[in-house]
């Protein structure tokens, strides 16, 4: 088995909570913080930490606005985030293919 794909995995994305967050955002243009929290069944603090990590990496954009006089925080993938997620999924597929050939 070639270990190279394992070494190329993006550690920022690969953590299970962030991988789930990236997958959710890849499936839709934008999600509200509360939608993400409920979908991923995370606490506010845990989700905030994962979003901050992905935002610092340049993978997620956070927008704060008001809707009906209430604060609304939304998240979306950046262009770099979408490219990084696509590359990460391709590496995972390569790893799976290697194990099926063995």
Question: Would you give an account of this structure?
Answer:
By secondary structure, the protein is an alpha+beta fold. The chain is 63% helix and 18% strand. It is built from six helices and three strands. It has helices at 4-8, 11-14, 16-26, 33-40, 44-56, 79-101; strands spanning 31-32, 60-67, 70-77. It has a three-stranded antiparallel beta sheet with strand order 1-3-2. The chain is elongated. 17% of the residues are buried.
How would you summarize the topology of this molecule?
Blueprint: H1 4-8, H2 11-14, H3 16-26, E1 31-32, H4 33-40, H5 44-56, E2 60-67, E3 70-77, H6 79-101
Antiparallel strand pairs: 1-3, 2-3
Tally of DSSP helical segments = 6
Amino- and carboxy-terminal Cα gap: 8 Å
The strand line-up of the biggest sheet is 1-3-2
Helix content: 55-70%
What's the order of the H and E elements?
A: HHHEHHEEH
Give the rounded overall mean pLDDT.
94
Query: How can the largest sheet be summarized?
Result: 3 strands, antiparallel
Structural class: alpha+beta
Uncertain runs with pLDDT below 50, 5 residues or more? none
Query: Percent of residues in beta strands?
Result: 15-25%
| Beta-strand segment tally | 3
């Amino acid at each position: 088995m070639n270990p190279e794909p394992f070494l190329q995995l993006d550690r920022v994305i690969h953590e299970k909570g962030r991988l789930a967050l990236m997958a959710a955002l890849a499936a839709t243009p934008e999600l509200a913080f509360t939608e993400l929290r409920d979908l991923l069944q995370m606490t506010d603090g845990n989700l905030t930490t994962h979003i901050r990590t992905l935002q610092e990496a340049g993978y997620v954009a956070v927008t704060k606005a008001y809707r009906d006089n209430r604060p609304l925080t939304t998240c979306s993938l950046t262009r770099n985030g979408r490219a990084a997620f696509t590359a990460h999924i391709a590496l995972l597929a390569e790893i799976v293919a290697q194990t099926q050939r063995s």
